[in-house]
Amino acid sequence: MAHAQQTSLAAKYVVDDLPGARQIGSRLHGILTSLDAGSPVSQRARDYLVASDLRCLHALAEGRTDLDSFKREAAIERTHRMKLAEVAARKAAADDAKRKAELAAASAAIFNDPAYKRRQEAKQLRREFNLGYIEPEHYPRVMPLLRTLKQGQRLRPKDVVWLQTEAEDCWTDAVAAAWHLIEAEALTEAWRVTGDPWAAVNASSHWRKCSQPDASLRLTEDALTSAAASASKVRSALATTRGGALRDVDRQAEAKALGEQAHALTPQDYRPCTLLGAVHIELGDLIAGHEWFKKAEQLGAAKAIVDHDIRALLARMSDTERDRVRGFLLEQDPERFAWLRTKRRPRIGIPGSDDYRP
Fold it and tell me: CB 95: neighbour CB atoms within 10 A?
């Protein structure tokens, strides 16, 4: 009802095209209310009518015209006002469209700018490889290497060494995984083309390190069949790396059997020993596991290699199992395993020392 009254009042005084005429509390609505009640209109209110170009309403407020004459003249004034408003609306729409077109053109120019494209591509590349800040002195060399990995191409060995040592912050898990996958695929293809069993051995290691042990198992099954008449060292290496892949898929009993087979083939090679050390510990035989790791060191395994395997082993365990193994090893040799006193959860690595250099 109140809304209808405001609309009726605005129509009576021929200003129904103006929102303020229907809005209670607005200046114009207050003037209309005063006029309709026969109350005098202040000088300030009349000045407002002149400033708003409501000349007919101003004349009525000053008593210079009667209501009938006012309505005739005000209708003409309203028509003119509405035409001006329409023109203004069209101009505003045109200006808005022009502004949007200019913004779109400016954006397109930015997006098409080669320098901008290079920056965005570099940003996306860093994001894909989980790389944030890159040291300025490393940037010119790191970015081409990332592009090489993105394209599925192999890195030169010296570039891998540089990434792992000089630019180690850039050797993220994502970079390592991409590199291992590319190496695994390349070495697998090399084995299929040349039949070189060492290519299969090292391909298996890379398959494991990019979290694809099933690919390693398929490859080593074929390679072991092909290498049945090969030298003991070759068959031992294949058995050891296959044993590591079996550990990855929780087939410890089979891994243990292969480790024993590999050790029998090459009793002076430490690699089957590290495999057997890890397998025995996973099977719960901590004493045998420790003895195999000791034997690996006696046969030439660097302490860093054994420690890496133990860290990887611990990373796969529950907190309870980890504390049990840590306590056992510290009890056996507190000085040798002093680093185990740190309770920090080990970084996940790849169990089993199966990297071979024929």
Answer: 10
The pLDDT-based confidence of 5 (bands split at 50, 70, 90) is low
> Counting Cβ atoms within 10 Å, is residue 286 exposed (0-12), middle (13-18) or buried (19+)?
middle
Mind listing the pLDDT tens digit for each residue in 76-102?
999 999 999 999 999 999 999 989 988
- The 8 Å CB, 24+ separation contacts for 167-173 are 167/134, 167/135, 167/138, 167/141, 167/142, 169/134, 169/135, 170/131, 170/134, 170/138, 170/142, 172/129, 172/130, 172/131, 173/130
Cα distances (Å, whole numbers) of residue 166 to 135, 150, 209: 11, 21, 22
Region of residue 20 (phi > 0: left; psi between -120 and 50: alpha; otherwise: beta): alpha
Query: Whole-model pTM?
Result: 0.67
Cα 358 to Cα 208: distance, rounded to the nearest angstrom: 19
pLDDT of 307 strictly over 80: yes
Whole-angstrom distance, CA of residue 95 vs CA of residue 281: 77
The answer to whether residue 345 scores a pLDDT higher than 60 is no
**What residue ranges define each of the domains in the chain, with the CATH number in brackets?**
2-108 (no CATH), 207-341 (1.25.40.10)
Token pair, residue 280, equals 């025995």
d(CA 57, CA 70): 7
Residues 35 and 60 sit within 8 Å (Cβ to Cβ)? yes
Residue type, 104: A
Give residue-wise pLDDT tens across range 326-338: 999 999 999 999 9
Whats the size of the chain, residue-wise?
358
CA 235 and chain centroid, separation: 42
Give whole-number Cα distances, 215 to 62, 211, 212, 246, 278, in Å.
97, 9, 6, 11, 21
